[in-house]
Amino acid sequence: MGGRTMADSLRIGVLGMAHDHLWTNLKQLGELEDVALVAGADPSAELREQFEEKTGCGAVYEDYGALLDGEKPDAVFVFTATAHHANVVELCAVRGVHVLVEKPMAATLEQADRMLTAARKAGIRLMVNWPTAWSPGLRTAYRLVQEERIGQVWQI
Known about the structure:
Elements: E1 10-15, H1 21-30, E2 35-41, H2 45-55, E3 60-61, H3 64-71, E4 75-78, H4 85-93, E5 98-102, H5 109-122, E6 126-129, H6 136-146
Parallel strand pairs: 1-2, 1-4, 2-3, 4-5, 5-6
Helix pairs in contact: 4-5
């Protein structure tokens, strides 16, 4: 994240608005300190309008690359159709922008491999919005299983 200081806000952009989980994530983002929603992009005029209405963020773009080049976010939320994740991650990676994609990560193994290759080559963080991965209850249950402190797990 380059020369960003602690006093600066982490600049977040949104690329794609096709998935309804976006709105919950943006609500949670709005509750954080030192984080700023800087812009959103989607080919759909209707979704861009909805984004403006729900967020109050007036910086909207039709083109993902235009947002990345114009706003220079530190990281982006990607809520495109899953089949487009690889292309969007590649757009971000060459610009050094960290990425959070909605689950599932990719539509094919080849796309997932492209995403990992692009992220590793660029040295960016690539995250998948999989809330159960950081659920305190599930993490505790997993630890207890690993420590053999509970019986054999047969169903989740």
